[in-house]
Amino acid sequence: MSSILKVRIPHVDFIILVYEIERNNFEEYHLNFIRMLKSRKAKLAIDKFPGEIIIVDFESGSYYSLRGSACIIWEQCESGIEKDDVIASFDNISGEQRNQITIFLNDLVKENLLEQVEHHSVKPTEKHNYEDILFEKYNDMEELIMLDPIHEVDERGWPHKKD
Amino acid sequence: MGRDFFNLLNIGDQPLTVIEELQTHYYTIGKEVLAINYNENLEEILGKSLRHVEIPPQPVTDFRIDCLVINPDFGFPFQKEDYGAQGLLDRYNDEYHFSTFHHGVNSYSFYNRKSKHGYYLVRNSADIPVWEASSPFRNIFHWWSGDTEYQLIHGAYLSIYGIGIILSGKGGSGKSSTTIGGILNGHKTLGEDYLLINPYLNEVYSLYCTAKLDHNAINRFPELEVFIDARNTNEEKTLLYIEEIRKGAIKIFGKVNFHLLPQVNNGTHTSINTTSSSNSFRSLSPSTIFQLPRLEELSFKKCSKFCRTIPAYEISLGTDPEEINNVLDEFIKNQLQAQ
After folding, report:
1. Structural domains for chain B
2. DSSP state of B49
3. Residue A160 has what pLDDT?
4. Residues of A in contact with B301 (CB under 8 A)
5. Minimal CA separation from A146 to chain B, in Å
6. ipTM, 2 decimals?
């Protein structure tokens, strides 16, 4: 049996790299149709670089890095897609990789970057080769943006936090 | 005094200042002309960091700021509870008006993008801390830049043998000490903390002729100890005026050829390696966007444009300033040879 590895390093909330997967833990992930959260589009900025997508959430101060197949999956989700169609869009995908996709989608929902809706989408026609998903959340600016400008700052004021 | 400000705050005809006499100074900010009207001794305190971009009086200005010590009896129509994240006052922010209260300085910044008129108001000039004097009006400059091609960024600049380098990174990354080391080594700078860039033309303009160094960094440059301001010794960082460090070290305009991402490596040797445009973006954009309130999406796009255009390198910094300078010099010489 195996498990998804989520590691914590300073200012990076989590990195998902699939090394091992415990199948029993996947019962909670019941995602159907998903798409980028339209209500929050104004608060998000998305920039696509070669091999990486960066998403900045202006409201929370968090920013995210998506690499590997996470980039393709995000682009599919921008217009809306069934979870099973995401999985079906990759060639020769293993059970472990299916679970990695499920966890990644679930984390995008938890982070309020995707939402689940009822209706269906056009099915993707293109097939992709799967690359391990790397999904990082940076929270160093979150602290700065959420800092109470009166009570949580030192005498210099925002953005200088009290010791 | 512009009525737009009074109308927005609905404060009637209260006298805003005790001393009405104003001194007007003119500056080039990017390629635009700024007029600042100061009262009392505010030019001496806040204008000093802009003196290298000061120009003679101009008949036409592109934007202006009233920088005023206000009447102590003047009452702002908001309370501490009204300040949101970053000191934003929601009630006094809309499509055309930008407004923040800086609790630490007791200063109010306002900008009307239609009239291109800003206010920087303080209750008492003696309350202005040294670190505020190092980069005054930055929110107003940020809001003004929203209607231009410019972007205020959190970064430093060095010109080495005519090649322009922007250094960006969080506090403690070694950006300031690398810049100061470069200045002491004979190179020029456009600034150490905030710069104005035009990402469409790869141009950089100086805003402030100041540098802030923490005490550990000062210890590495013993020649700087003579410049430490006595007012400043209890502060976390020391404010230095670049022209005092080395005459002729500050310039006001430069092109940018490379983006360097410094990182202190705690003792090993200094080295420079290529890195991706996405790393460049992550180094520059969040600390720029989240330190400057509002216009986030526009700033994001301008930073993105810059990072996609300029080649980026990571510089892993050792502790020896001489070695850092040698590695930087070698890097630039190699780039020049390759051209």
Report:
1. 3-145 (no CATH), 151-338 (3.40.50.300)
2. G
3. 59
4. 45
5. 6
6. 0.76
Alpha helices in chain A (DSSP H): 70-79, 83-88, 95-110, 140-146
DSSP B93-119: -SSSEEEEEETTTTEEEEEETTTTEEE
Residue A51: list chain B partners with CB under 8 A. 276, 278
Q: How far is B248 from chain A, CA to nearest CA, in Å? A: 31
- φ and ψ at residue B97, rounded to 5 degrees: -120, 135
Q: Is B2 exposed, middle or buried (0-12, 13-18, 19+ CB in 10 A)?
A: middle
Pairing between β-strand B194-198 and β-strand B203-206 as defined by DSSP bridges: antiparallel
Domain ranges of chain A: 4-146
Q: Are B103 and A150 an interchain contact pair (Cβ–Cβ within 8 Å)? A: yes
Q: Tell whether B308 lies on the interface with A, counting CB pairs under 8 A.
A: yes
Tokens of B20: 């009405």
What's the CA gap between A35 and A121, in Å, rounded?
Answer: 10
Integer CA distances (angstroms), B319 to B114, B274, B322, in order: 49, 21, 9
Per-residue pLDDT reduced to its tens digit, B230-246: 545 556 678 889 998 99
Which chain B residues are Cβ-neighbours of A160 within 8 angstroms? 104
* pLDDT reported for residue B220: 82
Query: In sequence order, which residues have a C-beta less than 8 Å from that of residue A73 and are 6 or more positions away?
Result: A86, A101, A104, A105, A133
Dihedral sign, CA of B39, B43, B45, B46?
Answer: positive
B84 contacts chain A (CB < 8 A): yes
Q: What is the structure's pLDDT at B215?
A: 75
For residue B117, give how far its alpha carbon lies from the nearest alpha carbon of chain A (Å): 24
Residue with the two structure tokens 């410019």: B150
Task: State residue B336's pLDDT score.
Answer: 93
The C-alpha atoms of residue A121 and residue A55 are separated, in whole angstroms, by 23
| B260 CA to centre of own chain | 18
The two most distant CA atoms of chain B are separated, in Å, by 65
* pTM of the entire predicted model: 0.86
